[in-house]
Structures are given as structure tokens and as C-alpha cells.
Amino acid sequence: TGVLDAVVSPTLFIVGGPIVNALAQEVADMLNAPGDMVAGVYGTNIIVAGYTADDTGQAAQDLIDALDAI
User: What is the share, in percent, of the chain residues with pLDDT greater than 90?
Assistant: First the structure.
């Protein structure tokens, strides 16, 4: 077996909610109203999304702040 055989699936960094990014469908049920946002690992992907563009921006800033705190 080769090195590539060990790769299960790629990790994607997905930004934007399911309305603007079809790859974010798995978090659609978490984004129901203005102010709703997610930033985290879902499956093998990292998703940063919000109900609105401003919510997505805030989710991204929250992720940056959390990483800076490490």
C-alpha cells in the first residue's frame, strides 16, 4: 500500500452558509435566524458559516480569536 491509501478524505475549509455555499449543507439546520453561526469541525471539514454575511464574518472572527487564545 502507498501513502495515498491512508488518506480517507480531504479536509476542506468551507466558508459561507448553505445559501451561498453548497458544501455547507450539513450545517443548514443550525442556521435558522439572524445571529446564528457555526465555526468548527464537522466530519473531516472545517466550516465557518452564518445565517447572514455578517454572521459568517463574526463566526470567522470567533474562530480566529479561539485560535489566538491557544
Answer: 76
